[in-house]
Write a structure and sequence with these properties.
globular; 2 helices; alpha+beta; 4-stranded antiparallel beta sheet
Length: about 80
């Protein structure tokens, strides 16, 4: 049986969305060529925030709807300037 390693005392949605976004923002700020959520979909609520963040940092976001009202697949690729 899997063992719980980290438990968040704040179970609010906004905290959960912020943790997810923060992990992705860190990858964007360090300049990763490709940014994903480690094989997991993202919360639909973070789509606009990630779209705006990618635009600011020069990434092309790709969102793929999955048959669910809560989750969406996400990948971003860094653009290069000539």
């Amino acid at each position: 049986m899997p063992e719980l390693i980290i438990s968040f005392s704040d179970q609010s949605n906004s905290f959960t969305y912020g943790v997810e976004f923060g992990r992705l923002l860190q990858k964007i700020e360090q300049g990763d060529d490709i940014v994903t959520n480690n094989g997991f979909p993202i919360r639909l609520e973070n789509k606009k925030l990630l779209k705006d963040t990618c635009k600011h940092y020069g990434y092309i976001p790709i969102f793929v709807e999955i048959n669910n009202d809560e989750w969406i697949d996400f990948i971003a690729m860094r653009t290069t300037e000539n």
